[in-house]
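Milestone M4 deliverable, item 7.
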Amino acid sequence: MSRLARIVKYKRFYITTIGLFLADLLTKLWIQIRIPEYTYYDPTPIPIIPGFFYLVHIYNEGAAWGLFSGYGSWLAAFGALALICIYLLRKELELHRASVQCAIGLLCGGIIGNIYDRIAYGHVIDFLDVHLPGYRWPAFNVADCGITVGVTLYVIISISDLFRKGKKST
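Output delivered:
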């Protein structure tokens, strides 16, 4: 199979990955230009839906919920390793399927977005701030959304496949 044919075969994956990465990059750039740093605490968050959703501008040197703070280089290396594993396991992941390409594309775009931040800034830029009744969810970004939605979609696809295979065997 030619190189072009292989690229076309995975076009949804590439489009989703690049699209998510660019969305993450552009939203973080917009935040850096428009919102002062460290606007996480009252009264500086910008309300989008008062009492529920705000825009902030903070930095996270760790992973989700600030875990592993100070290990940004290790987290970037772990992200790179995840990308390599996805590439090596693309057949087992069934990356030839359109739905899987979208799910894994979201995951990879998010990983690349956060790796970029760690390399370029030494931290990840977070700006989406959700308040739930009695709880303030840790701030996150578009890359984090891509990772979460991509993994969730892949799990749903996998479970759905198991049910379909189970029905066919009975």
